């Protein structure tokens, strides 16, 4: 079965979305296809992007002058845009290459009219370029949105080592924002096999950030050689940071002893592609 043919997807509902004003005042959407919001209304869309994804990932890579980022999936683009906002605001001398799969082409096309927070005002030309061409490039930033199924996009990158606009090295991603809809409603983007593909594209010191702390998420990552940490950022629910190489612990990063977790919960298991065929 090809992932995009999974019967859990409902393309006929894909255009049906409702607007939500999240708790930090930033606007997000609710998907009728997945029956879930794009961001946690409680944590706030912009706050969640910055606190759970951008700040910890950049903190753990502050020595780098060039970063390649996999943003799963583009959605409203908050994670990509919050990344650019953070880098510009702090004048970070880092070159960024962001690759982001997304199968909702109409959504990406609509984003030039989206009601983004004022923090993204200076990003307007970038938002417009991505919306129109699914691509943006200047001297510091290169952004590619790959329209289509994320599973196929990763397989293509693994097999071919290139995208439409770039040649990639085998293990190229320093940062992965794993921000799909939840494992319950979008399981094929949380399976052991999915994380194996991600792992094979990651550098040894890669940092994967995700809001899901579910046992199945932790197992799927751990079974692919990731070390795991709980992460507690201000004003957000606890999230997860994974890295093939164990990172230095800071006060708000708590290493998870997965062998102990497995002893305590011997029935805990990762999601598998075969569960959904
Ligand atoms: C939770 S939203 C992402 C939110 C996004 N990170 C943001 O900051 O706005 C999940 C996105 O995944 C997309 N999606 C779900 N399954 C997909 C798949 N198999 N391939 C590509 N995109 C997918 C949905 O269309 C949706 O836009």
UniProtKB/TrEMBL annotation:
| Entry's Gene Ontology molecular function annotations | oxidoreductase activity, acting on the CH-NH group of donors
Q: Which organism is it from?
A: Sulfurovum indicum
PANTHER family on file: MNMC-LIKE METHYLTRANSFERASE DOMAIN-CONTAINING PROTEIN, SLL0983 PROTEIN
**Which InterPro entries is this protein grouped with?**
MnmC-like_methylTransf, SAM-dependent_MTases_sf
Give the domain of life.
Answer: Bacteria
Q: Which Pfam families match?
A: Methyltransf_30
Per UniProt, residues of the MnmC-like methyltransferase domain are: 132-241
Q: Where is the signal peptide?
A: none
Gene3D superfamilies in UniProt: Vaccinia Virus protein VP39
Query: Under which name does UniProt file this protein?
Result: MnmC-like methyltransferase domain-containing protein
